[in-house]
Amino acid sequence: MNKKVIIALDFAHGAQARQAVAGLPAAVFFKVGLQGFLEYGEEIVSALKKKEKKLFLDLKFHDIPNTVYGAVNSALKYDPDFLTIHLAGGRTMAQKALEAASRRPGLTILGVTILTSLADSDLLQVGMAPPAADRVLQLVEMGVAAGVKGFVCSPQEIAPLRRRFGNEIILVTPGIRPQWSEKDDQKRIFTPQMAVEAGSDYLVIGRPVTQAPDPAAALARIVSELSAAGK
Predict the structure, then answer these.
(1) What are the catalytic residues?
(2) Domains of the chain by range and CATH?
(3) Which residue in 10, 13, 93, 118 has the fewest CB atoms around it within 10 Å?
(4) pLDDT band at residue 218 under the 50/70/90 scheme
(5) Helix (H, G, I), strand (E, B), or coil: what is residue 111?
(6) Residue-wise over 107-122: b if at least 16 C-beta within 10 A, else e?
(7) From CA 203, how far away is CA 231, in angstroms rounded?
């Protein structure tokens, strides 16, 4: 079950990220986002690789196709296992990202659909018609047509995507909050059990683990709850 949980290293300083990794020896997969990458990216990536951990580089590339091709190509030196692009960049952009990623066997490009921090009212403000589930489906359909195999979506879109695409795609789910933790800034959330039961392949969990009084115990509790549920 540890392999299903991706620990988000959402910290402002490298020392905090290193401490979190050191305090979670059972964790297999870690996510480094944009802020962390810009602040201490090479340092934490090196530390993760030395510990033989898997890397989710969550940079959400979104630009013209050739620029995204170059960005993905440059990111290959960090040897990521997952790397994100915004599907809103369009089919050609997604295809150029996949073209660059093909140089690194084992790298999965993940298409980001609608950020979990956005509610339907937020979509209206940026010119997108709600509900979010419809826009997610539309973006994933475009991504699949472009050749993308993995997607980031909120827990509430897992079941509709599984009905539409079955097990042909990989689903990575942020917005995961155990019942015993705070929701923070995520608006569309599930518990770990709910997300896996709906069909999520990977659960991205940050503060409920990394900011717990005992992070290792918090991760163990999540893994134990998933195991008890037969997941």
Answers:
(1) 60
(2) 2-228 (3.20.20.70)
(3) 13
(4) very high
(5) strand
(6) bbbbbbbbbbebebee
(7) 12
